[in-house]
Write a structure and sequence with these properties.
By secondary structure, the protein is mainly β. Helices cover about 5% and strands about 20% of the residues. β2 and β3 form a beta hairpin.
């Protein structure tokens, strides 16, 4: 960890290419290793990223941006609110 961010070394993006080389892969998702098959009705929290969140009345509350795991008892979904023009009226 460095300044609250995870620091990793990736093949093909060595120190010689430095920050410039790393900028080319910024915000890309890494493939995760295979997980166990899920039973019907089960999900992996990370698979929710990118999904739209709505209340029961169909009002868009935002999009899932990720999972917060350092919260204590259970993970929380990090949801980014949409612009007012996409369903919010507050």
């Amino acid at each position: 960890m460095h300044s609250g961010a995870l620091v990793v070394a990736l093949g093909g993006v060595g120190i010689a290419r430095g920050r410039v080389g790393a900028e080319g892969i910024r915000s890309r998702r890494a493939a995760r290793r295979p997980c166990r098959p899920l039973a019907e009705g089960e999900i992996y929290w990370d698979d929710l990223a990118g999904l739209r969140v709505m209340n029961r009345a169909g009002v868009v509350l935002g999009d899932v941006q990720g999972v917060v795991r350092q919260h204590g008892g259970h993970p929380l979904l990090r949801v980014e609110r949409p612009p007012v023009s996409q369903g919010r009226s507050d």
